[in-house]
Amino acid sequence: MYLVTGGSRGIGKSTVLDLVKLGKLVVFTYNHNLEKAKEVLNEAEQLKGTAIAIKVDFSEEDEIMALFNELDKYKQPLIGVVNNVGIVKKQSSILDISLDRLKDIYNINVFANFLCIREACRRMSTSLGGAGGSIVNVSSRASVLGSPNEYVDYASTKGAIDTMTIGTAKEFAEQGIRINAVRPGLIKTDMHADSGEPERVKRLEQTIPLKRGGSVREVSEAICWLLSEKSAYVTGTFIDVSGGR
To answer: What fold characterizes domain 2-241?
Structure first.
């Protein structure tokens, strides 16, 4: 069984459908948009696969715990997790970033993902009776580039994800769990509209060595490779899906 958090749109949705095509049982989460979740379920059904949607507010620890308790009810062991849930705020100079904004973004992008890694490892660790498996964290090239004048707060949360990836990969390597991350660059997703600039990728395309924005499928294919046995000797590693930027 595979879990994809934030799986109702963008990179998460593409990952869910790629896994379904591979014949995997996939549980994915959504929060506000039930219609988007239903679209994913319908597409999975058309692919003759099995996907399950669970509503989760990742700002609440109780709901995260309830999610993993629900996973425990299924017959199949949890062997793959994609920590994709995350938010971004409107573009802003750091001079105008409030503490409330910081709390909101760290609560989802850092604390929730930390709890998901913890709960996944509790279930996947071979030393605790699990079957082992693979965890893929969705970071961002922003963790390296810093996103000045736009969202340094978001970039810093992805830096935290990078550190968690390195540390947990080393901690759980002998317990059958591989932990890696993808760092998408300028990808054509709804997240740019969330930050206040829907055409951001188009504006910055000339700064990309490949001179184009990326697709969600190009990111999800990297995620699926890291989840698979084809990457069995890969842990604590980052794949930059960024066109060279």
So the answer is: Rossmann fold (3.40.50)
